[in-house]
Design brief:
Layout (H helix, E strand, L loop, with lengths): L1 H13 L9 H4 L9 E2 L12 E3 L1 H7 L8 E2 L1 E7 L4 H16 L4 E6 L5 H6 L6 E6 L2 E5 L7 H12 L28 H20 L1 H20 L1
Parallel strand pairs: 1-3, 2-5, 4-5
Antiparallel strand pairs: 4-6, 6-7
Helix pairs in contact: 7-8
Protein name: Thioredoxin domain-containing protein
Organism: Magallana gigas (Pacific oyster)
Keywords: Membrane, Transmembrane, Transmembrane helix
Length: about 230
């Protein structure tokens, strides 16, 4: 138990430097036994890249045979362009495609295709899910979405061996996943605030305190009209 705690602390301390190559700390990390088996795709490491897809493409990619225990696995990131947390982890996620070229790694804009949020239980972003045969089987729950933690998550979930020579480079800052949060107006947030203000105002008017204020305003208005 002491060795396991010490090892986890070491991974957390080294995760802040994304440019540090993967070492034996990934190999020595305990692997979880899963009830499914991921089958690696045929790949060319040099061409491995994150695919940004729309909702139709995502559902098409995930349309596997649900009855098999062996099959393709897909790692999906649900993000929004104006989320600074998504932008912060983007370089690490972009590099992850080169670490695991045998794995389909894709990203989808959860704001543009909001119908997918309820389907896959996305209530916050960034949200990372591993799919097997069209089912979400594992969710990345670590609060620190560092390069090392992402690599460990994929290794433990799929059993794939990472390419430990890969590091996060300056090219990963430019895409495919954007590393700079987009400045935009969040209309959903604006509508939410208007809804909260409307409900609060309605409840205040219906309350006894609200009725007292309304009566006072009516009395002042009537006095003003009488003076005129």
């Amino acid at each position: 138990m002491v060795n396991e705690v010490s090892q986890n602390q070491s991974v957390s301390n080294n995760a802040t430097n994304a440019s540090v190559p993967l070492t034996a700390e990934i190999k020595n990390k305990s692997e979880k036994k899963s009830k499914f088996t991921c089958v690696g795709k045929n790949y060319t490491a040099e061409n491995a890249s994150v695919m940004i897809v729309n909702n139709t493409q995502l559902l098409s990619i995930l349309s596997f045979d649900n009855n098999n225990t062996e099959g393709d696995c897909v790692l999906v990131l649900f993000f929004v362009p104006y989320c600074r947390f998504c932008a912060a982890m983007a370089p690490s996620f972009n590099a992850l495609a080169r670490v695991y070229p045998q794995l389909n790694i894709i990203a989808v804009d959860a704001a543009q295709f909001s119908n997918l949020n309820a389907k896959f239980g996305t209530v916050s972003v960034p949200n990372i899910l591993l799919f097997h045969q069209s089912r979400a089987v594992v969710r990345f729950n670590s609060t620190e979405k560092s390069f090392t933690n992402l690599v460990s998550f994929v290794k433990n979930s799929t059993g794939f061996e990472p390419n430990i020579t890969v590091t996060v480079t300056s090219e990963d800052l430019s895409g495919p996943l954007p590393s700079v949060a987009m400045e935009t107006t969040d209309y959903m947030l604006l509508v939410s605030w208007l809804f909260v203000i409307f409900c609060s105002g309605f409840m205040f008017v219906q309350s006894s305190l609200g009725q007292q204020w309304i009566n006072k305003v009516n009395m002042l208005w009537q006095e003003h009209q009488h003076i005129d």
